[in-house]
Design a protein that fits this description.
It is a single chain. By secondary structure, the protein is mostly helical. It folds into two domains: 3-85, Orthogonal Bundle (Rna Polymerase Sigma Factor, Chain: A), CATH 1.10.1740.10; 92-180, Orthogonal Bundle (Arc Repressor Mutant, subunit A). Helix content is 75%, strand content 0%. The protein is built from ten helices and no strands. The chain has helices spanning 3-11, 16-37, 40-57, 66-85, 92-102, 111-116, 118-129, 133-143, 149-156, 160-180. Helix 2 (16-37) packs across helix 4 (66-85) and helix 3 (40-57) crosses helix 4.
């Protein structure tokens, strides 16, 4: 079933829409939540909360891209759960990925709130548009989906070392790109 049909079912308040969402995007949402939380039971709860969030927000919202809408919901819920779970602790799996970007995004704010700013978002989108597809995939897998080097290597057919080197170079390019656009103080 395509996304427009699922959205139509949601507007009709047909519970089959949730079944279709689970079938179509359940695995992706689970993996995204697990990558952030590193805990399957918390991830499952976030995914279930995502389906509830979709049910409660469509209608009135009618997203252009259902996959982006769903991924953003599950990612935001997982990040909230992550902060709750690690209020006084350090979870190296997710923190390491964010710390890699901190060298590019110098700010008095934390990385998540800085990324939410609209200008920075536009600049990062412009940066991503300038990348080759494989580099864009690597960047997004690491910094949006919180995938490990091994997972990225597996998906792209590269070695973990090659992924590591590419990410180092991409962060360097991003830092320069942001400096050129006055995004770094």
């Amino acid at each position: 079933m395509d996304d427009k049909q699922i959205i139509s079912l949601l507007f009709q308040r047909n519970e089959g829409a949730i079944t279709e969402l689970t079938t179509k995007y359940g695995k992706l949402c689970s993996q995204l939540a697990v990558n952030i939380l590193n805990d399957r039971s918390d991830a499952e709860e976030c995914v279930n909360d995502t389906w509830l969030g979709v049910w409660n927000s469509i209608p009135p919202n009618k997203p252009e891209s259902l996959i982006s809408y769903v991924c953003k919901l599950v990612r935001n819920l997982a990040i909230k759960r992550y902060h709750y779970n690690t209020a006084a602790k350090r979870n190296s799996h997710y923190d390491v990925a964010l710390e890699e970007l901190e060298g590019c995004l110098v700010s008095s704010k934390d990385v998540e709130s800085e990324i939410e700013s609209s200008y920075l978002t536009e600049v990062i989108e412009e940066f991503l548009d300038s990348l080759k597809q494989v580099d864009r995939v690597i960047f997004m897998q690491r910094y949006y989906f919180s995938a490990s080097y091994a997972e990225i290597a597996d998906k792209t057919g590269l070695t973990e070392k090659n992924v590591s080197v590419k990410l180092t170079r991409l962060r360097s390019r991003l830092r320069e790109f942001l400096k050129e656009r006055d995004c770094i103080v």
